[in-house]
UniProtKB/TrEMBL annotation:
Start and end residues of each stretch annotated as Disordered: 1-27
UniProt keyword annotation of Hydrolase present: yes
Keyword Metal-binding: yes
Protein name in the entry: N-acetylglucosamine-6-phosphate deacetylase
Organism: Streptomyces djakartensis
Protein family according to the UniProt entry: Belongs to the metallo-dependent hydrolases superfamily. NagA family.
Domain of life: Bacteria
Organismal lineage: Bacteria, Bacillati, Actinomycetota, Actinomycetes, Kitasatosporales
Keywords recorded for this protein, A-Z: Carbohydrate metabolism, Hydrolase, Metal-binding
């Protein structure tokens, strides 16, 4: 964001530049509503200099008038199993790249690749493949969802492949990921659960409580042991009860926990989302997709790990029993729904989609905001909050659609 008077609401006049920018030429977006961490600047301008957000607009810059549009940080997805017809759990390298690019086209400039339950040999091999993509900068790391989850709350995970979270098995997955494991979801009430949470905390990996049948008290013990995330809060856990509050109350009330929410209109009633925001606030909410192959691809039959999934009218369910099986959500749709249906402010929505997950990943010095020096990751939205452009590290993934 500029530190000129234009950043305070009076963007300087942009000269006409009908030609495309030359290689390495700085770009300036003018006339925008720019959402910053501490303020929203109207009629502002944003400088992109190489791969980073710049301070001031040089005279040789290429100006693009985006009046009437919002410029927000690129979205950060902590929990994503695939998209564009490709699975992060079972696809080839090319398949995974296809899925990553599909989500980039919907504004997700940073994501964790999430696995689903499999046997240990398969998961360790998968960790090796995904870690290479993390080392290349295509993904921010790996999220293991399963196999260390409760059979009582298994959701769309193969029950016969579940196991208790013994620290030795957890350590095996972390070692296979070569330092690229960023988060692991587990049912902390199972044997070995608390010791595994402590191991994850020691290794700098996020311990996420999910697919759990824990009590309120057991959940508090897991938080005290070092757990910091609630995997898709409300889903795959006991409901909130007035005599047995279960994990939901513990996760909402503790400031150490960031709660994931799947805002697709299927996973959550709007009142549940409002409850989470009321108790946790935008600084402790991370919108996720929990997307599977069908995200951005269409209805049909798919596989999620070893389980067959039928997608109809954009809702993914196990073919065997109708259990919700991830989502077909993309984060641009989550943004629009949050503002137009749920009534959240644009600023709180930006926090939940960008700033909060970036902070959780320890990457807020690079991503999650439009401050000078950060990566030039941004999303361009029109007045109806429809996506009109995506930039990642200074390159347009979706060029500005301003007609």
């Amino acid at each position: 964001m500029t530190d000129t008077p234009g950043a305070r609401g009076t963007a300087r006049s942009a000269p006409a530049h009908p030609h495309p920018p030359t290689a390495g030429q700085p770009t300036v977006l003018t006339g925008a509503t720019v959402v910053l961490p501490t303020e929203t600047v109207h009629n502002g301008q944003l400088v992109i200099d190489g791969t980073r957000i710049g301070h001031t607009a040089p005279e040789n810059a290429h100006f693009i008038d985006v009046t009437g549009h919002y410029v927000v940080p690129g979205f950060v997805d902590l929990h994503n199993h695939g998209g564009g017809g490709a699975s992060f759990t079972s696809g080839s390298v090319d398949d995974v790249l296809k899925g990553i690019h599909s989500h980039r086209e919907h504004g997700t400039t940073t994501l964790l690749a999430s696995t689903v339950t499999g046997d240990m040999d398969f998961l360790t091999r998968r960790a090796g493949l995904l870690s290479e993509l993390a080392e290349q900068g295509e993904i921010a790391g790996i999220h293991f969802e399963g196999p260390f989850i409760s059979p009582c709350r298994k959701g769309a995970h193969a029950e016969e492949l579940l196991r208790d979270p013994h620290p030795a098995d957890v350590r095996e997955l972390l070692d296979a990921a070569r330092g690229q494991a960023k988060m692991l979801t587990l049912a902390t009430e199972l044997p070995g659960g608390l010791d595994s949470v402590r191991l994850l905390a020691e290794r700098g990996v996020i311990a996420a409580i999910g697919h759990t049948d824990a009590t309120y008290e057991q959940t508090l013990s897991a938080i005290d042991a070092g757990a910091t995330v609630a995997t898709h809060l409300f889903n795959a856990m006991p409901p909130l009860g007035h005599r047995s509050p279960g994990p939901i109350a513990a996760l909402l009330e503790d400031d150490r926990i960031t709660v994931e929410l799947v805002n697709d209109g299927t996973h959550l009633h709007p009142a549940a989302l409002q409850l989470a925001f009321h108790h946790a606030g935008a600084d402790r909410v991370a919108f996720i997709t929990d997307a599977m192959d069908a995200a951005g691809f269409g209805d049909g039959r798919y596989w999620l790990g070893t389980l067959e999934v039928e997608v109809a009218d954009g809702v993914a369910r196990l073919a065997s029993d109708g259990t919700i099986a991830g989502s077909t959500l993309t984060l641009d749709r989550a943004f629009k729904r949050a503002v137009t249906v749920d009534g959240l402010s644009v600023e709180d929505t930006v926090r939940a989609l960008s700033a909060t997950p970036a902070r959780l990943l320890g990457m807020s010095d690079r991503i999650g905001s439009l401050e000078p020096g950060r990566d030039a990751d941004l999303v361009l939205l029109d007045a109806d909050f429809d996506l009109k452009g995506v930039m990642r590290r200074g390159e347009w993934v979706v060029g500005p659609q301003l007609g």
